[in-house]
Design a protein that fits this description.
There is one protein chain. The chain is 17% helix and 55% strand. The chain has 3 helices and 8 strands; from the N terminus they run αββββββαββα. A hairpin with a 5-residue loop joins β7 and β8.
């Protein structure tokens, strides 16, 4: 039994894109595209995900989705979640743009699974330059 528990590892997560969606002034919406890589021996049967994206220490967006997919053992899957942003946080971030050439980011949350274990943490941080950020957002 303990050997089976040890074979579940948190998958690697990577932010691969952001795209604007239909929004209102007070609720900007985006599609957050991400890739999951499962380095474990067991497939991960995903029933939902909750994600948050922070940029320069400010929570830019948060979202949940009842996605249903499988990340195969030693495989990867690309998925997307619609997220909502805080207008106040976006304004706060925009005010720092003229003085910042590099942005730190953290993508975090939980991957909710069918069965045991109930969920696994997701976390990936890094930095991007202004040019990379512009290419990422299209």
């Amino acid at each position: 039994l303990l050997g089976g528990c040890a074979s579940y590892r948190a998958p690697d997560v990577a932010l691969v894109g952001l795209a604007p969606l239909e929004s209102t002034l007070f609720e900007p919406r985006m599609r957050l595209d991400f890739r999951l890589q499962n380095t474990g021996r067991r497939a991960l049967k995903v029933r939902g995900v909750d994600l948050r994206l922070e940029v320069n220490g400010v929570e830019l967006a948060r979202g949940v989705d009842a996605l249903g997919f499988v990340v195969p053992a030693f495989g990867e899957t690309r998925a997307a979640v619609e997220v909502s942003a805080s207008l106040l946080n976006i304004v706060q971030l925009l005010l720092t743009l003229p003085e910042t050439d590099t942005f730190s980011y953290e993508l975090g949350g939980r991957l909710h699974l069918s069965g045991f274990p109930g969920s696994l943490p997701l976390r990936r941080g890094g930095a991007v330059t202004r040019d990379q950020l512009m290419a990422l957002t299209g």
